[in-house]
Every structure is written in C-alpha cells, then in structure tokens.
Design brief:
The structure holds 2 protein chains of 2 kinds. By secondary structure, chain A is of the alpha/beta class. Chain A has 5 helices and 13 strands. Helices cover 16% and strands 24% of the residues of chain A. Chain A has a 10-stranded mixed beta sheet, with helices on both faces. In chain A, strands 7-6-9 form a 3-stranded mixed beta sheet, with no helix packed on it. Chain B is built from 6 helices and 11 strands. In chain B, strands 1, 2, 3, 4, 8, 9, 10 and 11 form an 8-stranded mixed beta sheet that branches. Chain B has a 3-stranded antiparallel beta sheet with strand order 5-7-6, with helices on one face. In chain B, helix 3 links the parallel strand 2 and strand 3. In chain B, 52% of the residues are buried. Classes of the chains: A alpha/beta, B alpha/beta. The interface between A and B is large, with 50 and 56 residues.
Chain lengths: 218, 231
C-alpha cells in the first residue's frame, strides 16, 4: 500500500524538532501542521508576513486581513508576530527558518528541484519558492513518486526548468523516504507493502539501496 | 505638514499613460481598492504594474487588466486570473516573473537608497539568465536592481495627516516596502486621524515616504480562499 497524502504529511511531521521554525508550502506540506507530535513546540512561518500561524478560523473569527501564503484565511497562535515581506524573506535568506517543506514536480539525485514551470503551459510564477530553496538550511520535498503518466519524478537530471540547485535534503513520497547524498538517492524507508524492487523500478535517478530498508510504521 | 488629499481621484490625478506603478498587497489582501477603482475610471493605459499578484478577474488589478490598461506586469505569482492568462498567451501583456523575496528586496533597496542587492534566489535557474553572478564566501548570488517606479500606491489600516502609516495583520505584506520605494507615494487608509494621534513607537512607515494620503471608502476586502475550521 502506498502512502496517502495524509500519511506522507504524517511521516514528514516526525522530522520536526522542538523549537523549530518551519515554513510549509502549499498542498501536502500544509497537511504536516495536522501531525505535529505532542510535546514538540514548533512555530510556523508564512512568507506573506507571519510567524505563529494557527489553525483555520471559525466563521466568526474570519479576518480578510489575516491569510497565509496560500491565501487561505487563518488564525494566529499566542506569541505570533506580523512583519513585511522584506523581513519575511530576510529571515528566510539569513537561514533562520529551520525547515522548509515543499512540493515538487521533479527532484534530481543531486538535490536540484523543479516545481514552478511547465514549458508550453500557463506559467503562474515561482512565488517565494526560489527564495526558500536558495536559502533554507533543511529542505524536505513532499510529492508523489511518479507523475500521473506513471513516469518517475526522481531523476538523474531535472527536465523541467529549475527552481533551485543542490538544495533538497530529503524526499518523502507515497512509496519511500529518501535522503539526498553525494552518491544519489539513499533509500531510507519504504511504505508498507511496497517492495524495494518497485521503488527501484520507479526511480529514474541513482538509487542507493542499503541492506536493510525498514517499513514506515504508523 | 498636511499630506491629505480629497480622495482617490485627486490622489492619482497625475498618473498618466505609461507610468510605472508599485501596487501593494498580497493576493487580494491589503490592496489599494479605492485607487485601483480610480485608475480604472481615469482609463490610463500602458501601465507597468509591479505587484506580487495580478488580482482576480473582477477584482484588484484584474479590473485594470479587463480594460486592457496594463502593458506589463512584474509579479511573483499570477495564477488566479483567466483574462490575465488570455492576454499573456496572446502577447498583449508582457509578464516578468521574479521571486517573491527578490520583489520585496528590490523595493527595500529603493527605499533605502541602494541601487542593487545580491540574492541567492534564482541562481542556476532561468531567472539568472543575463544577470551578473558574484560569489561571496563560497556561495553564488545574483545582482538585482532596485525598482525605479514613478508611483507607489499602498493601503494601510491607519494613517495620520502627516502620512505616518500603521498596517494590520498580513495586510502589511508589500505595502510598507512599496511605500518607501515610490518617487511619489499615495496611501489610502481605512482610518485617517490627526497628526499626534498615533503612538510614534507603533508607526510602521514614517510619513516622510508618503506624499498623499486619504481615507478610503467602502472596502470590500474580498477573500480569495475562505477556509473555515470544521465545526
């Protein structure tokens, strides 16, 4: 059984450490907030200008002046702070944000990432993604292992226009957890019921397979 | 010193065809609604608009796009607008997509009197094409220039008659940066108060950066993604 999007988020949440400042991208990364382990105190950064993002509001709490980077209405937690976009990207550029989780269309075994543009299709823009991947100290990518056509999204070289080079540290897909190492994708864990052979067959980039690949437990 | 003008029409009276405008806001949050309406009414054309986003079809900068008043958009993300897409694909509208932090910091540089910045955002990507790359302490950075814009149009929560501004929540976003970056800065505020009414320690934008201020009317504050907790 491959992992659901919620399970990918749940697995990534285990990477959060007490005291982390974390930026979560749109899509699966947003779901990580639902699985923060108890006792782990993290502060969520939203790059439109907020540290201390809280859950979605109730209908009564909705404030049009209070949104996240996905333009969704949100709330704040105790101790939150607002700032302008230069301060927001200043703290990102200065490496103050401990962990960035974002989605991707392609990742290379060198840690390159492509997630903003498909030539020939409508290009919406990179938003803050290029700033985040250029500066974040630790970047985890959350994505499906293959695209809707069944082609691998883990490549030796990204075909799509890059968002950033040699920046991704870890990839969590519906099939596996992989670290980016100088030797390529290091297979760390596999989804329940997914074989190493299946992961190998769906990974186009260089895959390093240790003798023991534990199953992710939930 | 009194920076107060009668309203949005007076505030934008000297914006003419071909002007370069910095427009505050993130998505539809913190956009200068009153001034955008006046620009639509005035019908100025060939505008170059620097704004993080381009509004939606029937609100924000989308209203200017509908009337084909924009020649070029400089933005980081432009997803939510069908007319924008049509004009972009047909070549009627020029679009320069740049990283969000680069956009913010190019405003900051202008407001700080600095001609350029170095940023790692976009190194090794097509954003870097044709740009000077400099290595500092083993890491590559792109040279990006400060914006040179004729007008900045921003929206604040409160302002006083001397042009001092306070923003609310995430409606702050690009507004204080663009306020600093315009040759002429126009601020529309939800509440205009006499000078001396605001706590000097709480002011986000010093009035020296603001040339014209007025109290806006009938803010719609449309929400793009109304997301509610499950009860």
């Amino acid at each position: 059984m491959s992992l659901s999007k919620e399970q990918i988020a749940q697995r990534i949440a285990r990477e959060l450490k007490h005291g982390y400042y974390v930026n979560l991208g749109i899509g699966i990364p947003t779901l990580v907030a639902n699985y923060i382990p108890s006792g782990v105190d993290v502060v969520l950064q939203s790059e439109n200008g907020l540290l201390g993002m809280g859950p979605f509001p109730t209908a009564e709490q909705v404030d049009p002046d209070l949104i996240n980077a996905g333009k969704q209405t949100i709330t704040t937690i105790k101790g939150s702070v607002f700032f302008d976009s230069a301060v927001s990207f200043g703290m990102i550029r200065a490496g103050k944000v401990d962990l960035t989780v974002l989605g991707a269309m392609e990742v290379s075994d060198q840690g390159d990432i492509a997630n903003w543009k498909i030539p020939g299709k409508m290009v919406k823009g990179m938003g803050g993604a290029m700033d985040l991947v250029a500066s974040a100290r630790n970047i985890i990518v959350a994505m499906m292992h293959t695209n809707p056509k069944g082609e691998s999204k883990l490549l030796s070289r990204c075909d799509l226009p890059l968002t950033g080079v040699r920046c991704v540290k870890k990839v969590v897909t519906d099939l596996a957890v992989l670290d980016i190492t100088p030797e390529g994708f290091l297979l760390r864990e596999r989804a329940p019921g997914v074989t190493v052979e299946e992961i190998q067959s769906k990974t186009a980039g260089k895959l390093v397979i240790p003798s023991d690949v534990p199953v992710i437990s939930f | 010193m009194n920076k107060v003008v009668a309203g949005p029409d007076a505030a934008i009276h000297d914006i003419t065809d071909g002007a370069t405008l910095l427009l505050g806001g993130f998505g539809l949050c913190g956009i200068p609604e009153n001034c955008i309406s006046s620009l639509v009414k005035k019908g100025v054309k060939d505008l170059i608009c620097i704004s993080n986003n381009a509004g939606v079809d029937d609100f924000g900068i989308g209203l200017l796009l509908q009337r084909k008043q924009v020649r070029k958009m400089i933005s980081s993300y432009v997803g939510e607008n069908a007319e924008f897409e049509r004009q972009m694909l047909s070549g009627e509208l020029l679009v320069d997509l740049i990283p969000q932090g680069t956009l913010a910091t190019r405003c900051l540089a202008a407001g700080y009197g600095m001609p350029a910045i170095f940023t790692p955002a976009g190194v090794g990507t097509e954003v870097a094409v044709g740009k000077e790359v400099r290595n500092f302490n083993g890491k590559d950075y792109l040279l990006e220039y400060a914006f040179d814009a004729d007008f900045a149009i921003v929206k604040a929560w409160k302002g006083d008659t001397m042009g001092n501004l306070i923003f609310h929540a995430t409606a702050r976003n690009f507004n204080p940066l663009m306020a600093m970056a315009g040759k002429i800065t126009i601020a529309e505020v939800e509440e205009l108060v006499p000078a001396g009414s605001l706590d000097p320690d709480a002011i986000h934008t010093p009035g020296i950066y603001v040339h014209r201020i007025f109290e806006g009317k009938n803010y719609e504050k449309r929400i793009e993604q109304r997301t509610i907790q499950n009860a």
